[in-house]
Each structure stands twice: as C-alpha cells, then as structure tokens.
Design brief:
- There is one protein chain.
- By secondary structure, this protein is α+β, with helices and mostly antiparallel strands.
- It has six helices and six strands; from the N terminus they run H-H-E-E-H-E-E-E-E-H-H-H.
- Helix 1 packs antiparallel against helix 4 (173-205), helix 4 (173-205) packs antiparallel against helix 5 (210-220) and helix 5 runs antiparallel to helix 6.
- The protein has helices at 8-41, 44-76, 124-130, 173-205, 210-220, 222-232; strands at 80-84, 90-94, 140-144, 158-163, 167-168, 171-172.
- It starts with 7 loop residues before the first helix and ends in a 53-residue tail after the last helix.
C-alpha cells in the first residue's frame, strides 16, 4: 500500500496556489508593460506637437508652417516633418528637398471626401525619399489631421512626422510590445493550467467532482475558479486540515481534530445548541 507523509497534500496545494498567484501577477505585469510600450510606440508627444503645428498652420497659413518646421524638427530630433495636401503633394517640409514631391496613392482609404488616397500613417513615399528602410523596428511615420483647414481657400492639409522609435535596453518600443504580448500569451496559458490544477486537487481533496470542476476552471479560467469557490463554501470542512466532514462527525477522520461535542451517555456527536441527545434522549449539560 502506498502511503504519503501527513500534510504533504496540503503543502502541495499551498505551493500550487502560490504558483498560480505568481503567474497571475506576472501576466498582469506583462499586459501593463505591453500597453505602455504600445503607447510609447505611438509617440503621443509627437502627435501633440503636430497638433500645435496644425493650429499654427491654420492661423498663419503655409508661410507660418515653413518658418516653424525647421525649429520643430531639429528641436525634437525628428528625421523629417511635412505638410501634405489632399493630392499627396508635399507643400512644406524639413528637410526642404522633400517639398514638391508627391506621395504615392496606396489605396488605404479616403482622408477627406474627394481627396486622393494614400497611407495616412506610414506613407512609403516619405521613406523612399529619405532613404529609410522599412520594418517594424525602423523609424515611424506618424500622421495628424485636425479636419478641414481653410488656408487661402478650400485646401485641406495633413501633417506627417518621421521619428525614431524610443529604445530601452537596446530594443525599440515596438519590439518590447511584441515580446511582452508573446510573454503574456504564454503566461496566460500557464496561469490557466495552474489554476485548473489547483481547483482539481482541491476538489479531489474535498471529495467533490474533481474532473468536472478542473475542466470548468480550465475552460473558463477565473470564472470557473470563482464558481468553484462559491460551491465549496457551502460544504462543511475540518478546521485543521480543510478536508470535507459530515455534519455530525465528532472528530476529523483525517487529522483527528475534535469537531463537535459528544453525548456523555452514548458518545455520539451532538450540536452545542441541543438540550437533549437526539440519539439516546439523555439530557446534555
């Protein structure tokens, strides 16, 4: 007959619980880090500066844009900045050689009704003009539009900035985002397995339907775990070892802890609120 040391199952269950909590914490950290990296990859400060430039262009026209572009690009370390009309023509830019070029029509969608179509977030024309390679970790092209601006007529303009991605420990924000997303998927699978294993072992220890509860936790994750805890709370358990006991047990059959008082006459278990033993009818004190 195979025997186990007393308390081994309880210790294993505790370690499995701590493993599940640790994996869940790592999963939350990876998701938070991925969200922050994605936010940083979007370069929100670049879009804020482009919105300020848009206001300046709307108020002072293209002449104001041509005056502001060099200081804006050099002050923030941008590789380039350009103002583009609906036909894809660059009407103002820094470096100046970009002006007069036309961005290719990428067919990615209309920017304004009646306008030409091109990739508003990553126009390949700007990359080609600047001699930049393409790829997820290469400098990004960010676009901004405040709607329809009226500059000496009914012309509408879109602003583009070409910027390097921020780097941490030698990796770009995009690379961090992709890595953390992959780690998050792996941690989610590990957490789901550990949670299902914890539910299965706990249900088995309490003499519940362990395969059914384990499968429910595996499929529904936290929902199944919460449902199991709600069902488990309705079951009597030993305060010493946590294993299930029947209502009139005098002591735990697993660890020997006394659970309820006994009748001094017949020795059977009784409730503390009883005045007479339900088994032999002797008075209780």
């Amino acid at each position: 007959m195979v025997t186990t040391r007393p308390g081994w199952n309880a210790r294993t269950q505790r370690w499995l619980g701590w493993l599940t909590v640790t994996l869940g914490a790592l999963l939350a950290a990876s998701l938070a880090g991925s969200g922050y990296a994605s936010y940083r990859a979007g370069a929100p400060e670049v879009l804020r500066e482009l919105s300020r430039l848009a206001a300046a262009v709307e108020g002072g026209g293209l002449s104001a844009a041509r005056e502001a572009l060099p200081a804006l690009a050099e002050g923030h370390g941008w590789l380039a900045v350009a103002v583009v009309n609906p036909d894809g023509l660059i009407v103002a830019a820094h470096p100046p050689f970009l002006a007069g070029n036309t961005l290719p029509d990428s067919g990615s969608g209309l920017i304004w009704p009646g306008a030409s179509r091109w990739d508003r977030w990553d126009p390949g024309g700007l990359r080609q003009l600047l001699g930049l390679p393409s790829g997820p970790d290469q400098p990004r092209v960010l676009g901004y539009s405040a709607g329809r601006w009226r500059l000496g007529g009914d012309s509408a303009y879109l602003l583009y900035a070409v910027v390097d991605q921020p780097r941490w420990l030698g990796l770009t924000a995009g690379a961090w985002n992709r890595g953390l997303e992959s780690a998050g998927l792996a941690l989610f699978a590990a957490t789901a397995l550990a949670l299902a294993a914890w539910v299965y072992r706990d249900a088995r220890r309490r003499e519940l339907d362990a395969p059914a509860w384990g499968a429910l936790a595996l499929v529904t994750s936290v929902v199944g775990w919460a449902t199991y805890l709600a069902a488990r709370s309705r079951q009597d358990s030993c305060p010493g070892c946590g294993r299930p006991v029947k209502p009139l047990y005098r002591g735990c059959p697993y660890c020997g802890v006394q659970l309820r008082p006994a009748c001094p006459s017949c020795g059977r278990g009784v409730h503390e609120s009883w005045s007479f033993c339900a088994h032999c009818t002797e008075p209780l004190h």
